[in-house]
Amino acid sequence: MEFNVKTLEGKDAGKVSLSDAIFGLEPREDILARVIRWQLAKKQQGTHKAKGRAEVWRTGAKMYKQKGTGRARHHSARAPQFRGGGKAHGPVVRSHEHDLPKKVRALGLRLALSAKLKSDDVIIIDNLVAAEAKTKALASVFETLGLTNALFIGGAELDGNFKLAAKNIPNIDVLPIQGINVYDIVRRGKLVLSKAAVEALEERFK
Fold first, then answer.
1. Cα separation of 162 and 11, whole Å?
2. Cα(194)–Cα(16) distance, rounded to whole angstroms?
3. What value does the mean pLDDT of the chain take?
């Protein structure tokens, strides 16, 4: 399909052909949910930890005599039911990662791109280049384009001025094509691709 290309100033810069195999799929929420869950699980540190009864420091002496008190037969003050005792079944240091087939991950990315295009939330810019690293100037450009919440995907190498200028603008993310991912596409309102990014995607899914 043909898609209009714009400049950062909002002027027409020709057209580009988009592959139906990448941008023309019928969106599937179940696949997107699986990929996002996989991504977020990989990001979890898994460093949460609570001490069990074998790890807390309390006396090992029997709390009181076995018989004659009328109370339950307790042995250790480290038991979970006592204040200062160990946590029963508490969190331990572990990895939250789980496997997801490569084909499902690739399909998830294509479905995310297709969903954005279907909802008219894709903009293609000929070149993501800023003349100077000025946040105020770039913010006014984004305002002209109506971009208040967007993910920008550039080519393999990002323009240094553009990256620096966009860094401090709220709700704006800038990534090279290598960093494109389903979670960032879905969490931002608009998806802005450079022509180099489109060409790289076509090459990747050829």
1. 18
2. 11
3. 93
Integer-rounded Cα Rg, in Å, for the chain is: 27
Asked if 188 and 142 touch (Cβ cutoff 8 Å), the reply is: no
Residue 131 contacts residue 71 (beta carbons within 8 Å):
no
Task: Specify the 3-state DSSP secondary structure of 174.
Answer: strand
**158-197 pLDDT, tens per residue?**
999 999 999 989 999 999 999 999 999 999 999 999 999 9
CATH code of the region 2-44+99-204: 3.40.1370.10
H helices present in 8-134, as ranges? 20-23, 29-43, 102-118
For residues 113 and 186, is the Cβ–Cβ distance under 8 A?
Answer: no
Q: Contacts for 65-71 with beta carbons within 8 Å, 24 or more apart?
A: none
pTM of the model: 0.82
Sheet holding 122-125: strands in order across?
12-17, 2-6, 122-125, 190-194, 150-153, 172-175
Separation between Cα atoms, residue 41 and residue 58, nearest integer Å: 36
* b/e burial code for range 155-177 (CB count within 10 A of at least 16 → b): beebbebbbbbbeebeebbbbbb
Match 């608009």 to its residue by tokens: 190
Q: What is the pLDDT of residues 41-63, one digit of tens each?
A: 999 999 999 999 999 999 889 99
